[in-house]
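seq as requested:
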Amino acid sequence: MTARSFDVVIAGGGLAGSSLGGVLARCGLGVLVVEKESGFRDRIRGELSFPWGHSEALRAGLGEPLQQLGVVPLPEMGFYEKGRRVDGLAWGSISIDGLPAIGFSHPRLQEVLLSWAESQGATVLRPAKVVGVGDGQGATVSVRSGGTLSDYRARLVVGADGKTSGVRRWLQAETVTDPEHHRFGGLLLSGGSLG
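struct tokens:
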């Protein structure tokens, strides 16, 4: 049996993989996005995009999924020391496009972007996992889904599979992590009043 061919196979359907998959599919490329989770889980991670990231997302054509999600504009950032606010930064004073930062639910944005990528023409396999990549005349990507192993051919393979990346292991690439130096926290209240 001949392996199905795609222009691009993306290992990982999170924010980066889905965004890239949707943009490339919208441009007419054959894209396969392989996501191992059947449903995205909420983990502690950044749920904020600074104004320049917000601007780049809009330039990439991601306005529709951001609007569908209902991102929360964050016009300023407060700085705290020993539990007290010491300063604030209004984004309008430094934002090139005049855009605010935006806040969002990470797993909800992952779901919206993966559905959006599919609506743009990307093929999505989920739950499925890239278990190997072979080279030669074009890459062969081996994917396990529901107990079945399938091979796909690709002109380009993109690893967007996060912190515990299998792609890095296949390439024998070392992971380098900066030491933690900032902590952010917040609280989202919904459907109530503060008065």
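The mean pLDDT is 88.
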